[in-house]
Amino acid sequence: MNEINVFFKLIDELGPTVILPVALFFVGVAFRVKPGTAFVNALRAGIGFFGLNVMIGVGISTIGPLTSAIVARAGLALPIADVGVGIHFPIAFSLPAAALMIPLGILLNIVVLSLKLTKTVNIDVWNIWPWMFSWACVQGVTGSAIYGLLAFVFTGVVSLVLGDLQAPYIEKYYNMPGVSFPHPFSSFFGLIAWPFMWLFDRIPGLKDWEVDIESIQKKIGPFGNSTVLSLIIGFLLSLMAGYNVIKALQTGVIVAAIQLLMPEMIKNLMAGLFPISEAARKFLTQKYSGDEYYIGLDCAVGVTQPSAIVVGILLIPITLVLAVVLPGNEFLPLADLAFLGFWVALPMAMFKNNILKGVLFGTVAIAISLWMATSIAPLLTRLTINAGSTIPEGVDYVSALTVYPWAWVTTWFSSLFNGGF
Amino acid sequence: MKKFRKFRIASACGAGYATSGWIAAKLMDALQGKGIDADITEVKIMDLAMVAQDFDLIVSASQLSDVYEVPVVASSSIITGVGFDVTLEKIISILKMVEDKEK
Asked: Is there a contact between A98 and A116 (Cβ–Cβ < 8 Å)?
């Protein structure tokens, strides 16, 4: 018993920056990756994890005080800072079990396939990480790895099953037959979009509303660039916070830097998993191929649809206004404003690429995300600190607009038995 | 193909790291196998409008309208493997056209 305690104490002391690469090395070797290659890649994942924490630290120490200053000066009751989608990864990858997420996720996929509950073969194994994020959140609330695993299983199964049901829309309106998005983000908002699809078809005028997407796309120009956009938003919000122009410009550049550099860090973390995921993909495509299966891809594929790009940009001002007027919201959107296309990645196919329907639905979907980002903020803040970041004084809570919905659902459910988030 | 400057290819997806990174890695392998030298950069789809003219070719995770004055190839077959050969041939023929144009 004593030895076990010492072992867990050691794991705790080494922390995820060391444990993650060590665990990934052994998983890689188990997947018959050459030890040298496995080592280099495992190390790269550890570096990615560290880099993410650095970037999140920069985000918290810039966006946190900015948010607090706006709250103090403009009297907005939105004290929760949006440090962006990157907040998910240190939380998900801080559990040692994260090294096993790909084999576990594939095992689950195979079980669900053999139970005939799904036809989706998820070859996008990198996106098993949101299942892991659900695990980390639920374990954070309940303290139990078993409940965490249940949240992992739930997120995976619900995404695979919904992926099947939503695939016909992808075939019809995105012209991609045999493809599904078993993605925990799109599957949730696809589910929410269903009643709206029905409703919108019954509103006269809305049904046949058409617009030349390409001409809008051309006009957007540099404002459609995520770094320029982040600079402008960061600058304007800094002025609102009462910063002088020099500090506002500096803040704008840092917000733009986060936009560009965060994905670079995530890329390193991903690259560390590459040999494992390649082996997994090869195995899956050999074992499950043919017309009776859907190939499961990332919903980011849908975001490249011109209609989703345009809606994503139109939703930016709407999101900012919504944050101010929505009752119960305490979250100020900022770092994730460049990702709004994701809310409609799948629904645009369900709405036959109708921009107006996309914007109307997007407004409702963003409202849901604002509430989720608000209510889960205390937990995310605690888990972010656990994963190795520090929160400066005067900053209350951090969260992200992109907070993964099934993680919120599982966390909410488990919090019913544990007295809140 | 004879020695020519490196081709510049943009790999675009919604977030600019996951799917596009995967496409870039697979395409790089395939092009190297054919002796073609290329730099492949992952780009967030939103940012494409500004940087498109810096590239010879855009491969996009799904269909993309041709508003960028740069040839676009849909790259989902690179991920799924179904029809990859056809896509690869198309990419190579576009790169050849780029080369001929500059000569």
From this structure: no
Which of A285, A304, A316 is best to mutate for the B interface (most B CBs within 10 A)? A304
B76 touches chain A (CB under 8 A): yes
Complex ipTM over 0.90: no
| Count of domains forming chain B | 1
Beta bridge partners of A122: A296
Q: What is the mean pLDDT of chain A?
A: 88
pLDDT attached to residue A345: 86
CATH number at residue B25: 3.40.50.2300
**What is d(CA A132, CA A95) in angstroms, rounded to the nearest whole number?**
9
Residue B70 domain flag: yes
- Model pLDDT for residues A260-303, shown as the tens digit of each residue: 888 888 888 888 887 788 888 888 888 887 778 888 888 777 77
| pLDDT at residue B59 tops 60 | yes
Give A222's contacts in chain B (Cβ within 8 Å).
49-50
Is B75 domain-assigned? yes
Q: How many domains does chain A have?
A: 1
Helices (H), A34-100: 35-74, 88-93
Note whether B22 contacts A: Cβ–Cβ < 8 A. yes
Q: By mean pLDDT, which of A44-48, A371-375, B83-87 is the weakest?
A: B83-87
Is this structure's pTM higher than 0.90?
no
Residue indicated by tokens 């329907």: A357
- Which alpha helices (H) appear in A201-244, and where do they start and end? 213-220, 226-240
- The reported pLDDT for the residue numbered A82 is 93
Q: A224 pLDDT exceeds 80?
A: no
CA distance A317 to A85: 19
Show residues of chain A in contact with B63, CB under 8 Å: 174-175, 304-305
Structural domain range at position A190: 2-413
Closest partner residue to A301 among B25, B76, B81, by Cβ?
A: B76
Q: What residues of A are in contact with residue B81 (Cβ under 8 Å)? A: 285
Interface contact A306, partner B, CB < 8 A: yes
How far apart are the C-alpha atoms of A414 and A397, rounded to whole Å?
21
